[in-house]
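Backbone description:
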Amino acid sequence: MAKKDEKTVQTQEQAQAAETTAPAPAAKKGDNPVDIFRDALMKTKREGMTDLLDFIQDIGFLDAPCSGGNHLAKKGGLLEHSVNVLKYAEKIGVALLGGAEYNKVQDSVVIAALLHDLGKCGDYNKPMYVDNILKSGKPSEAKPFKRNPDLLAVPHAVRSIKLATLFIDLTEDEEWAILCHDGLYDFMKYDLKGKETWLQLIVHWADMWASRIIEGGSDKEGAE
């Protein structure tokens, strides 16, 4: 009887997986993160997406680091992190909502997950992160990058929304999920408390799992 029950569970899981039409950005060996990023966003068919993707490339998103010295503080780290967040957001979304329901909201998950850190590119032709050179004249090994002192300290989530909406329309839920993707760790914590949404929670959980667990970030710098 136990074997029969186990087989039933496996069959249900297989049916749910077949029902889901997610682009499966999860990392298979040899997958190109640039292709994953572009293909997933283009599949949303959001008007203006082609122009946004061209802009993203022009402002250096594909080569930017993800942090100063925390998680993925390296060239291309921002792209790698964004793809990781999408990977886990899709897993969480399917697990919590089921395949059929997740398919209905997949575009919003893709957009919020992949664009949540767009603002880390900087703005006004100024990158958010610059090389961290010590007084000795040598680059820091512990913290390779630092915040650009020439760029005003606008929260990167706010900047993410600003840059994205130069080209595409975001839904209210997508804006909220991007704005509050750091959850209670960031400047929106008092406004967010008690007003969480399913999309904000999915992106936040995926962001935390990617940055803390997969990418090895510490708790010292918050989610950034």
Remarks:
- The CA atoms of residues 69 and 141 lie 9 Å apart.
- The first strand starts at residue 129 and ends at 131.
- Strands lie at 129-131, 145-147.
- The chain is about 50% helix and 5% strand.
